[in-house]
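Submission sheet (multi-component)
Chains listed below:
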Amino acid sequence: MYVAVDIGGTFTDIAVHDPDSGRVSFHKVLSHRADLVGAVLQGLDSCDAATDSIDLLVHGSTVAINALLERDGATTALVTTAGFRDVYEVGRINRPESFNLAFRKHRPLVPRSRILEVTERLRHDGTVHTPLDEAEAREAARRLRDLGAEAVGVVFLHSYADPTHEQRMAEILRDECGPEVFVTTSSELSREYREFERTSTTAANAYVGPRVSGYLTDLQRRLDQRGFRGELMLMQSNGGLYDVETASRQCIQMVESGPAGGVRGTIEVSRQLGLDRTIYFDMGGTTAKTCVVRDGQADLSSQYFVGTYAEGLPVRVPVLDITEIGTGGGSLAWLDEANGLHVGPRSAGADPGPACYGGGGTLPTVTDAHVVLGHLSPTRFLDGRMALDVDAAHRAIREHIAAPLGLDVPTAAQGILAIANAAMANAVRAVTTERGLDPRDFTLVAAGGAGPMHVVDVAVELGIGRVLVPHAPGTFSALGMLTADLRRDYVRTHFVRFDDADLEALEGLFRELEKTGRADVGDGAGTACIRSADLRYVGQEHSVTVPVAGPLDSPQALAALKATFDEVHAQRFGHQAPDEPVELVSLRVSAIGHRAPLRITSLAKGPGPLDQFVIERRPAALGTDTELRDVEVADRALMGPGAAVKGPALVEEAGSCLCLPEGALAICDDAGNLLVEVEVL
Amino acid sequence: MTTPAIPHSAVITDEIIRGSLVAITDEMKTNLMRTAYNPIIYEALDYTVGLFDANGDTVSIGLGLPMFIKGLSETVKAKIAHWGLDGIRPGDVLLTNDAYVTGSHLNHIVLTVPVFHGGRVVAFASSMAHWIDIGGVLGGRTTDIYSEGLQIPFCKVVKDGVEDQEILGFIEMNVRRPELAFGDYRAQIAAIRTGQRRLSALLDRYGLDTVASSIERMYAHSEALARAAVAQVPDGTYSAETLMDDDGITDAPIPIKVTVTVEGDRMIVDLSEISPQVAGYFNSGAAAGRSASQVAFKCLTTPLQMPINEGAFRALEVVLPPGRVVSAERPAAMQWWMTIPVTVVETIFKALATAMPEQVHAAHHADLNIAHLSGIDPQGRFFQDLVNIPGGGWGAGRHADGMAATVCINDGDTHNTPVEANEARLPILVETYRLRNDSGGAGRHRGGLGVEMTTRVLCTSRFSAGIERTRSAPWGLDGGRAALPNEVRYSVDGEDVVPSTGKIDATMLAPGDYISIRSGGGGGYGHPFDRLVEAVARDVVEGYVSTAVAFDVYGVAVDARGVVDHEQTRRLRAQNREVTA
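Outcome: structure written.
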């Protein structure tokens, strides 16, 4: 049996695959934040897989991101190069909110008093300018022990070029502080230049390290007690899996595992359906996320902010290139002092939640707009586990939006959704048109509780003609985790102009990264190493990642790579400079240990007559309608392969609902996915 | 692709169009930043992109450089006046760097494309970016515009879709690094073409009438929000005066006097009494003087309202006769145009400190603290660059301490350059980049700390600096103390130099010589005796404040480990609050 357990803020999602029967089943239980290991075990109890029959358990955990967001990590210290203690606090000095006099930049995870300097210095090419002062290093280690540090990060300047000093410092720390102190170096997490970003990454890894490694040890132990004999793997932000031992040291790699599961799920359904261009579109309670998948792959971004760009902490590890905006089901609709209407980024959150949840919320949200427009059944929401207060939703929108603007309530509600949809369409444009891609060439894949409610309208806004609502969109990340490959990504900064490049050295570096990759993910037949390089024109700062097709062993190979770079630059930014010299910034290798694709059987049911899955007709306003009229409501659980629903209509499932405006046609495929043809003007 | 009219009420359409315009200018901004060829653009973000209506008024602006809030619109307007709307055709790209139009220096290249709809010009997309070199004297003192480089009058660098190679040839022969200049030129054109394309698509989708009336309502909306904020300020006339160090030619300080009048929901900033234009290169044009007033106004009224557009400033009137240091006329030297407007903004804040105590912070380090290096590196390649933008302290406010190490007011999202990137690009070794302890002004809320950045050159290098506010320290408010001001030290052939000013003419440094820039802190807010004892003790433990300053200025007897002698502290704080300073 293969099992994936994805812990989220509110729910723990479980996906179980039985390779013998080919069946996949999904389960959802409430998460207990106080006991995350307990939540995993409880999740396993809720499904029919006996712990001792599990061959592979994939786990996506919020333990790292929660510790960062809630500032609930270890007593952490840093050791830096002499003269650079304050790199972490100084940061990049920018004020993105340029006119906000009260703006606050990032808040470090480590106070200045626990940042110590040690004499040592490298130059940018990795040569030693000043050797590591061992006596000072030992003295610093002792001081940190006396200060009660539970975790220590080591960040030396230019260590991306040579990690020897950092590694020696780590040895001394382990020696002086003992095994109970978590020690991490910047070079084991990131071999890219930019000292503040690397410092922030290292500090974050140290800060969450003791908590994450303790959690994993506890999880493994309690699983073993229950007879678990399979393999435990963790989901990383790059969409791949890694083992417990590595995860216990490089904890920060799992920081965005949930969304990565969703992208991985998109890759999987795209493969199953033979779609080579899809866009992941996930809308939950507070945010919407989107990411492009082409030919079975999503791009990686090398930086991620814990929090927002303006005041967040940068983490420089490979993260799937996901754009996130503050529009979700809980986003508040509000009027400013001059009666301008806005939606989000403020959110009603889980507490008090949307007005219709009856949890004391009185302010209108996106979900309240759906309730007013008849999109959600007041009695069947979450399989009837939560009754929705329609009057409260009406009241919230009337009092706060419709009355002050002189609109009727459905028009105001439709306006709230239109604004949310326009914002999400702009987010999709940010990952497509801004990168030289045309969204109309893609299929939009909906996930998350609110995704199916908005996906068709967002598609219309973008001119996208095809939408896919996968089977069980609310547990889509768990499905993605179930199908993920083992994966590690390696980056090595190596500045050299193409004119000056030593081909043997470059090829040697690539081989070294590949060797590490094969050692980390296993050297089996399924292992593949994919090369790429970050390039720029001489003078530029920002680089573009370009695939490296074959060995870089001849001037012709280098010239071909340069030509590819020119093309990619032109596609992405609209211009190129083929006559200008090019510079290499970093080499990249992705080592992927491919797992055999899951063999998933079709749904058993055949297409039933319409009346078998249409359960009622109720008034609703869909698309740009502002008047409610009776539409068909289908129960997705009753739809078999071939079943079709034509808009205007609603397709309900636990916790969500697919809104089909007029002109949209949804058809259920053999695997239970709904394919929606959208009328594009 | 045209779709039928969208049946939303205006308020909803307005918000959708507002979001789309912000997204377009954001995309233009990212496109330019990610493909630029010099760090003044991609790190310092000394560039600005925007969309403008057919009058040249700002529809949405992607900053970049807050100080260019007005310069782009004024340049687009000047271009419209030059050619007339009838003289502009779909395939044109309009160029200039006229310093007296942009209000700034010749490095600022402004490119503009028209947006056509239904056969006529309905809007413009434009970008300004700072080229690393535009010719002129290298690192030296200038006293007129002619020594500052190539002046490019209004011209069509692309005419009816055909690039004018003769114009490009003039540029190529007059700049030191044409390959960088043309890289930035391509990045600028790609950015404005993106804006042109996206705005056209928006017009196709919603129709010109819908978009135009939404834009008009957006102006009115921004205006209403700003007027509501001004109406909260007590009516009256408020003035303040500050001194700049000197103009680099004579030793005389430059007075910056402003008078602000608030009448109901409008504000008048009068800069008539500011210094006349000066002999040195610290002049800027009228667009800069008005921009400084607008930056201050935006900060105080609607700091988070986006997009920044024409309407946001309708409640502001700026009185600025020509010939002042921020409304200079040809042939005034403009190279260091950005320096004085920072203090103009701060002086407007200072004038309004008592009228707007919730908004106004104490003064900050108020300068970019820029030094330049050039030379031939050991590989035989010419280099020319900033040493860095180190950042400095931010002033404390009524409710919070000032931030340490941030960029000055007119330079928003400007980043420093990572030491690791700088050492890979330039023949330098940075010795330290650290906070400057005790540099923040004392107060109930403490001002932020400045930094110290010490850099050694690894080969013979030409060094110059134009650092201001080394004499007039960042002031405190409401009993808060001043911070340490900016300062520069260096060595020549191993001999330490302690200059009396921050303005250093081109000086040759030998390998191993150093440049040490120490930026000022931010002023304090409220009397230091009113700062919580625990906060002072924590500052001592973290090293932001020394035990001596804690004792002498804050009246807190605390040791380095943070242990407070409460009895002695009580006695210290019972002293006359006015004698400790």
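Remark: Residues 1-6 of chain B have pLDDT under 50 and may be disordered.
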